[in-house]
Amino acid sequence: HEIFPFAEVPIPTHEGLPSLVDASNFPSGTRNEAVIIGEQSNWVYYNKPLTLIAIGLLVFLSGIGLSALHLVHTVDVPSALGPVCLSIGLMFFVTGMVWLPIIKHALRHDGLLTGSPTDFSIMYFL
């Protein structure tokens, strides 16, 4: 464990992780804490909206299937079940799609996402 003068608690150092931030890297007015800065995958930031999109698509597709089964009259399906699944699935899907650019903008604003807005990436168009 390595103790820095600006930290009150010892911070463990691990091989493979970037070094600890020293006091010169802290902007003025921040609390005096040691922070381990490491490369995090995009999944850390985008897991909730992508999960919403996946669940929304699955519920939406099941709503299409239930509506089709009701219209064909092969299986006794309640008449409202298909449209309810369609609307809930669409709501989840749209919420996830709107959440993606919000998170991307927040990450750019906080400086956690590198690159310019003109970078060609799939996440720019989502």
Automatic annotation (TrEMBL):
Membrane-topology annotation of the record: Multi-pass membrane protein
TM segments? 50-69, 81-103
**Statement: the UniProt record of this protein carries the keyword Ribonucleoprotein:** no
GO CC field: plasma membrane
Provide this UniProt record's keywords sorted from A to Z. Membrane, Transmembrane, Transmembrane helix
Q: Where in the cell is it found?
A: Membrane
Q: What InterPro entries does the record point to?
A: PIRT (IPR028068)
State the protein's name.
Uncharacterized protein
Which species is listed as the source?
Podarcis muralis (Wall lizard)
